[in-house]
Input
Amino acid sequence: MNESSVTHHIMVVDDEDNVLKALRRELKGSKSYNVHTFNAPEDALAHAAIHRFDLLITDYKMPWMHGLTFIKHITALQPHIAVIVISANADEALRHSHFNEVEIPVLLSKPWHRAELLECVASALDHQNDEKS
Output
């Protein structure tokens, strides 16, 4: 199958609706991405129990569930999933003592630049495809 015809399923989790809308808009305009957005981690986990995702983009700091806790839950359900963490305070995220409990290959600062976002997404999906091979 041609790689350009492959649809990648992306889960985006953030408690801010404007962030979800912006990420959806930027991702939908690029390649073959099927984007599912959730503003509650619990809803995202319920969906992940039924549907497979290739990539998770999640906020680091959410009121209902910390992003790192969410990542632990989602990777227990879907160990193959690539992860990108977005944070308004990347320095805090990096200093947080619990940050080292979860492998986070990509940390993207809010506000992000579109080109950087798309590069991170493509890289994460390419890395995931390499691991499957």
